[in-house]
TrEMBL record:
This is DNA repair protein SWI5 homolog. The keyword Cytoplasm does not apply. The lineage of its organism: Eukaryota, Metazoa, Chordata, Craniata, Vertebrata. InterPro entries: DNA-repair_Swi5. Keywords: DNA damage, DNA repair. It comes from Bos mutus (wild yak).
């Protein structure tokens, strides 16, 4: 059996309208979606304004996000290598952390 599809949290799965209701229901549905998108845009604009007022720049934030992606990629590779080493040694990855000076909470 196929898994149930998932939808974004702010999206409501609506049943198909009955004939004759289709135009009005579709228009109402679209208007609701448009309103939600406008509210989300306003919220994001406020967040951007707040960050700018705190001294952050768009370039700085983009650079920070890029660095976070790079960090996560490196961390994923390290976790994979630790996993392989643990298998070879017959231990858990947790047991390898002290040997390499790693923090379990990182």
């Amino acid at each position: 059996m196929w898994p149930q599809p998932t939808y974004p949290e702010d999206w409501q799965h609506r049943p198909s309208p009955k004939p004759g209701q289709a135009d009005r229901t579709s228009e109402d549905s679209l208007q609701l979606d448009i309103q939600k998108l406008k509210e989300k845009k306003d919220m994001l604009d406020k967040e951007i304004s707040q960050l700018l007022s705190e001294g952050y720049s768009v370039d700085e934030l983009e650079d920070h996000i890029s660095q976070l992606h790079e960090y996560n990629d490196i961390k994923d590779a390290a976790q994979m290598l630790l996993g392989r080493l643990a298998v070879i040694r017959g231990v858990t990855t947790k047991e390898l952390y002290p040997e390499f000076g790693l923090d379990m909470n990182d």
